[in-house]
Design goal:
Length: 134
Amino acid sequence: MKLSTRSRYGTRLMLDLARHYGKGPIQIGEIAKHEAISVKYLEQLIIPLKKGGFIRSVRGPKGGHELAVPPGKITIGGIVQVLEGGIHLSDCVQHPEKCTRSRTCLTRDIWKDATDAMYDKLESVTLAMVLDRG
């Protein structure tokens, strides 16, 4: 299993905002320079993260983007959930009705348990914890 670029870059965006938490908004062009991600791609990521309540935008000459909540309250799992709508190792984990074998499948529970373990780990790590590691 591999996380999408969307989740990896979204996490980098959020970490950049976390580094500047409490210092006022930062412009998207600055984030793009720091993270080597195009402004266009960052703009696409900001939309769902704003809808998810993680980012707020400030207009004006000193405007930009900032975290809407403290870095200690935002988990990596929350970011992935907002950007991906959930990740599952197998489609049958999220949508058992799509597989005729889901009720009798011997491996479905393994994929479900592995997915749950991954999300438990991602939900246990906040942006603040990642910054503390660096």
